Amino acid sequence: MVIDALLPWTRWLLAFHIMSVMAWMAGMFYLPRLFVYHCQVMAGTAESERFKLMERRLLRAISTPAMISSFLFGGLLVLTPGAVDWHGGWWHLKLLCVVLMAGFHGLCARWRRDFSNDANTRSEKFYRFANEVPTLLMIVIVIMVVVRPF
To answer: Model's pTM, two decimal places?
Structure first.
């Protein structure tokens, strides 16, 4: 995408899209880590309640609004004529990874509800593994957008 050749406000869309994605990714990196730590405390304790509060605030006040704004600004960029090479294979893989990231976001929301209801059945090891998923997806997304290998 050649930003300069596009509409003048496209740089603003791109800037807001990048900021939104950064905030969303920060939440997706940190929330599973909070789940790891939450597994280490007993349900019903003050510490468990503190984790519940942190997880809820991170998801509702940061991650979900950032995901929505990422889709909003990214969608507006996609609708900008000339912004996307629809024949490039990189675009399809990037979009798939974004959909998978949104699915992971949904899983995190479900896991947060389980913790909130003191109904978590997953292990600390499970969440340690889950914590790597957004990193792997982010790596593929960035390579597809910057390098465009195919």
So the answer is: 0.92
